[in-house]
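Same chain as my last thread, 602 residues:
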Amino acid sequence: MERFELFPIVSTMEPVDLRLYYPDGDQESFWRSVRESPLYENERSEIRAEGNRLRGLPIPELTYSLFSIYSRLGSRLEYERVYFERRRILNTSVFLTLLEPEREEHLTALEDILWSICNEYTWCLPAHVGENPITETIDLFSAETGFALSEISCLLGERLPSLLQFRIRENVIKRLFMPYLTSGPYHWETATHNWAAVCSGSIGAAALLMLKDSEILTDILLKVQGTMEYYLQGFGEDGACLEGLGYWNYGFGYFVYYADLLCKRSLGEIDRFKREQVQSIAMFQQKCFLGGELVANFSDSQAVGSVQLGLSHYIAAVFPEVEAPPLSLRAAYSEDHCSRWAPAFRNLIWKDSIHARVEWGSASYYLPDAQWLLSRHVSEAGAFGFAAKGGSNDEPHNHNDLGQFILLGEGTVYLSDLGSGEYKAGYFGAERYSHDCNGSQGHSVPIIDGQYQIAGAESSARVLEASTSPEEDMLVLELAQAYAHESLQSLTRSFVWRTGELPSLTLSDEFHFNKAPAALIERMVTFCLPVVDKGFVILKGLKTRSLCIAYDDHLLHPEISVHTFHDHFGVEKAWYGVDFQVRKPSTEARYEFEFQFINNSK
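reply #2:
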């Protein structure tokens, strides 16, 4: 949409009112429902529990000592724990003020935290500041903060003192709108990942809520429109989010929050949900869950997933093909360690009892642009899941993981993806692939003469065959380009996933070399303690079954190695490498593994 098309729409927008959020325009009626309706029992209990935890505690300070830790030591967690706790205080104070308007202490706490956030040296995280002057920097969290304060000011209206309303407006203009229009372009304005949607969507939403000047609002919305186009370019027609499910929730969530406000304020004249691509992206979530709360956690993602129920119900209402998730997957109020306002608020206002369901059933999907095969199999024997990927080693939040796979059953992930590590200095830089969670050494892929997979766009998989059916799913990949080994001519990895009452997996690797390697290892990555027997490796499950990996003992010799890494929250965890060492490497060879779920012996 060009400026001459957008400006007439913007100039006729009505002032912001509460009908943006509440169907009947009655805020008091909605919050009475949250107080009294069984539909919100869990949410109000969790919010009040956080209120009780925070009651009487001082607002923690963002000191210089905390701010400087990242530049001195490269650690992010110390500053961010305090920063996000302050956002938790903000959110909780707002919700309690609306839930219990008769209690003045909630409004007092809200006023204090709003004042304190307006006084922050920067709304950005130290890891994102870089070399730019603080006043000209916009990162994910500064943009989110501006959106949050704008929306809270709109919701509370005259209940907030006029000075606080002024300070919020002053800060959002100074920290977001002015630098956005005069100091860019920022790296995220042409990014094809979550930064584009979160930053531009937050700024656009704040502008829609706060600005009355049609000229300035049009300028901002035009810039947001351009960045959102770049964000959508990061998706293929299959709608897969290569950054993983967590970043789908994050990036696509902010795309939806902005698109919803834009559609409502333009009275439907600007509707981003009409694009077929957006529907494909909206369907990604239901494909990622492999069994219960366990997900296909490729890239910087977590193995255990949850859903933002408000976002999920909203897109299920917009797109009939989107399946609303089971209520058991609802993210609790305190689960988001970043304490983001926008999803927390919409988990209340967009929650809809119509979309309640028990569990997702069996389904298999092949996503051709991402080269992901995803299968969830539910039977009387339990819930089982399998996922495998090709793609390239040049993806957002990239891991060197071509040919990686995940296998789980009845709540146990037997073959794992380590997922996201601790974000600290170097994690997104030169040392990235020295971290086991990012380099191929921490994935279930071959190691050739001690060499791991290489990063870069040239390191890509080629799909030779991919299919899904009610009985069998198959993925065949050519992976030779993932390695810089001079003698490797071909590496064909084949997966056959049979979905009977008790599913099974066959994995085979076929190698062709000009010259036989000195060493060749088929590595499997697991958090389960492996037990080696001749021709078998057993991975014990949490419930009634275990996984048996059958191999040819004449060709392969398994050795167990123990490793540690720091997960996303800085917790040290141990993982096992089940290294099937080839006894006599040759120029041509094929190695096969059978994965069977077996009953535990009593």
